[in-house]
Amino acid sequence: MRALDVAIIVLFLVGMPLLGVWIGGRQRSATDYFVSERRISWWVVCVSVVSAETSTLTVLSVPTVAYGGTMTFLSLAIGYLLGRIVVSFVLLPKYIAGNLITAYGFLGKRFGGGLQSTASVTFLVTRLLADGLRLFATAIPVKVVLAAYGVNASYWAIVVVLGIAMVVYSFLGGVRAVVWVDAIQMLWYVLGAIAVIVVLSGKLPDGWFSAAAEAGKFQILDFAASPFTSPYAIPTAFIGGAVLSMASHGADQLIVQRLMATKDVRASQKALIASGVVVFLQFALFLFIGVMLWAFYKGANPVKDLGLNNNDELFANFIVRDMPSGLSGFVIAGILAAALSSSLGALASSTVTDVYQKLVRRPMTEAEVFRQGRIWTVVWAGLLIVCAGLFASLTRRGNPIVEQGLSIAGFTYGALLGAFLLGLLFRKAKQTDAIVAFVTTVVVMAFVILGVKFVGPEAAATLDFSAATATSKPLAYPWYTPMGVLVTLVVGGLLSLRHKGYTPPEVDEAVSVKAA
């Protein structure tokens, strides 16, 4: 790592927040702050959605998947696209036509404020943990770069600096700044990936492509893997991936907030469906890099043969050691860009709209909502920094707790999406039914994720709360969300049978008519 590379990284960390403040301009109202008066172009929102769902771990880990295996990860991306199509025509019309600020506002209109607050708090806790881990992961390559220059900075110091970079443009620029900075950062790390491919192309021997093809590295569909334990088996990837995407893009305020910043339902639908296509191409790009790295290192084991701490260091190792000066810094900045997509606006909007307004029990003026939005943006920034610092203090690299943290959404996504579908499919369901079903689902999924294992070649189901091993594997994570949705619908549907003659609030009918 050379001085030019460090200069590029520093320029990026300083320039992006300032650019976000300039793009965001002066915020005039709470609606402008949270959803930018619903006037952002669909293609900008599309790119922002892709950036928001891409983390440092994605950029660093996806090439490793192809390096050690094949390109079957793409089958999961196909499921993701199918799920976005369903969300586009089932849930998005409810949000946009209802003039809502958060996705959970629909639950408030359909069931009541109790479920709206329950879903919002669940989102807040899940997002805090997930983004705290994401911020900590971003600090890892920064620490490596600083160590190369003899600077022994602590993880706490690094996450504080990164957190400040995020809060500056989120606080001053609102969602408009977040969306545009997301779009720019996504283009940055994609250009970085293309630069890696160009450099690798000049380093690989003739015939590497045909050798990779003969080794099966370009396989996309896997018909032989177990659908219970492999996330890339066809039914797991298509069905599980689709329902997982329905939850992440239809019931997670991080994504929904960006989609609601478009001018109408049609624009939000184009943004969401197009994002599925872009994600597929993005995954293909990074998987292709993984195959090229396999050819470059001749399939060497990253830990045993290359002396790395874990497999996920492979891509970063190539960037630092084998990329030319200047390009190396550009690509590292792109990796940071994948992690600095801010969720602070989504956390603040959900806190103020779904929780704070319910607690004060009085109508709030536009100015009050706007002021509280900015206050909670700063509060959540502080909590994210603390959460990331705790991950740094309590987690050792390679410790399984990191993998558990990355799949934490599996505990709650099924309950969140299930609550939305319960309101749409079971017209007699009331708020109490939904809350009981919601809590039951979270408990059941915790039991399944932590305790259910599949043993042996025939994948016999057993109950074992110890850590997973090569012979005792957990349920493939794409199934977590479909199972959670099923539990919510079964419990909530059965409870709703008690209410004979009940009809849901008329406001839901009005929104449905307007959406149609």
Please describe the topology of this protein.
Elements: H1 3-24, H2 30-35, H3 42-52, H4 56-68, H5 73-90, H6 92-97, H7 104-110, H8 113-148, H9 155-201, H10 208-214, H11 234-250, H12 253-259, H13 265-296, H14 314-322, H15 327-339, H16 344-360, H17 366-394, H18 400-406, H19 413-425, H20 431-451, E1 452-455, E2 460-463, E3 472-474, H21 480-496, H22 506-515
Antiparallel strand pairs: 1-2, 1-3
Helix pairs in contact: 1-9, 1-15, 3-9, 3-12, 3-13, 4-13, 4-15, 5-11, 5-13, 7-8, 8-9, 8-15, 8-16, 8-17, 9-13, 9-15, 9-17, 10-13, 11-19, 12-16, 14-15, 16-17, 19-20, 19-21, 20-21
Organism: Saccharothrix mutabilis subsp. mutabilis
Transmembrane segments: 6-24, 82-107, 155-179, 186-204, 232-251, 272-297, 330-352, 373-394, 406-426, 435-456, 476-497
Membrane topology: Multi-pass membrane protein
Describe the structure.
The structure is a single chain. This protein is mainly alpha-helical. The chain has 22 helices and three strands. The chain has a three-stranded antiparallel β-sheet with strand order 2-1-3. A hairpin with a 4-residue loop joins strand 1 (452-455) and strand 2 (460-463). Helix 7 runs antiparallel to helix 8 (113-148). The longest helix is centred in the middle third of the chain and has 47 residues, at 155-201. It is globular and about 75 Å long. Mean pLDDT is 82; it is low at 396-406 and 507-516.
